[in-house]
Input
Amino acid sequence: MSNYLNYKGYKGDIKYSEEDDVFHGKVIGIKSLLSFEGDSVASLKSDFRSAVDEYIEHCSKIGKDTEKPFKGSFNVRIDSDLHQKAVVTAATNGISLNSFVEEAIRKSVL
Output
């Protein structure tokens, strides 16, 4: 089972509100806030697709590029001692800090 929807390269995170008896979610991986909801799976999927389509259309209309989700670049803030250890470990292994961090993340994600 997945708690995500996919459409045109965008990924929507799905939650369920028991209090409101509705599914809702937001598009993840971009700075813009795109939310969607539905009282059934079909209506949730439809509203998700509509949110993405409306975002793309809006950006086109105002001449703005759409955000590319998960573009492969992000900032990470960590303790300075951990930062130093990571740099030294990467250098000792003859790899860049980026390669070191990428491999550490690769080993940790599903």
